[in-house]
């Protein structure tokens, strides 16, 4: 821990005005904030709980992304609200291929160490990954993105509609959209059914491979091939 203080050489500062009085300690598997307050010449040091995870996704915007495994399928809206309410985060995406590959590698086994939805803080928890439903070829995890109203039907030929350009992204932690990599089965294809309801995005995973991104209805229904198993929640380290 290091603290930079603006003071004379004879006494400690009695206030925190103009001083650096907060910081963090982190490694590849843990994170902890600390802060220092000064009152009547007494310094008090406090720290957040020591958060542990199997791996942080440290990216260029200095944020962390976590996969939250849920107990039963839920809508994109509910998942987004859970990310905000439980973790102070935002439904997120991926900034690098390493992030995607790491997630795929972790979920290729029958059990995974990740955050459990019902656990109050970050910890190494073993939870079942795959659903007991065998009729779905893919497990899906909600990521950030909501289709623009001008890009919901195949007859809408706005040049800003192809691929990820047809979606509004609200994740301030993303530095690029290069790793919104769509599924090989001609995704995104939600504009082609004439319903105008496939307006949210999941990343698909099955066995030892990923299936790219897919656009499906935001309530998770009528997807036909994706069982919603969780969501990707992003947050800045000092928000944990």
UniProtKB/TrEMBL annotation:
Superkingdom of source: Eukaryota
Region (Disordered): 1-21
Biased composition (Polar residues): 7-21
Protein name: Uncharacterized protein
Species this protein is from: Caenorhabditis remanei
Organism ancestry: Eukaryota, Metazoa, Ecdysozoa, Nematoda, Chromadorea
């Amino acid at each position: 821990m290091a603290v930079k203080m603006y003071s004379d050489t004879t006494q400690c500062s009695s206030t925190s005005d103009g001083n650096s009085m907060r910081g963090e300690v982190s490694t590849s598997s843990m994170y902890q904030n600390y802060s220092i307050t000064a009152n009547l010449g007494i310094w008090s040091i406090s720290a957040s709980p020591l958060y542990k995870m199997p791996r942080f996704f440290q990216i260029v915007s200095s944020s962390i992304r976590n996969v939250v495994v849920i107990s039963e399928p839920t809508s994109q809206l509910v998942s987004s609200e859970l990310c905000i309410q439980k973790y102070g985060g935002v439904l997120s995406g991926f900034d690098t291929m390493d992030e995607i590959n790491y997630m795929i590698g972790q979920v290729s086994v029958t059990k995974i160490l990740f955050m459990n939805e019902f656990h109050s803080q970050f910890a190494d928890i073993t939870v079942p990954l795959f659903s007991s439903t065998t009729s779905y070829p893919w497990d899906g995890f909600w990521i950030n993105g909501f289709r623009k109203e001008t890009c919901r039907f195949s007859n809408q030929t706005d040049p800003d509609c192809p691929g990820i350009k047809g979606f509004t992204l609200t994740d301030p932690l993303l530095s690029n959209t290069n790793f919104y990599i769509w599924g090989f089965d001609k995704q995104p294809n939600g504009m082609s059914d004439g319903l105008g309801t496939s307006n949210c995005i999941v990343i698909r995973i099955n066995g030892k491979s990923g299936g790219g991104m897919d656009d499906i209805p935001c309530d998770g229904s009528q997807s036909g091939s994706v069982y919603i198993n969780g969501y990707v929640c992003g947050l800045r380290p000092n928000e944990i």
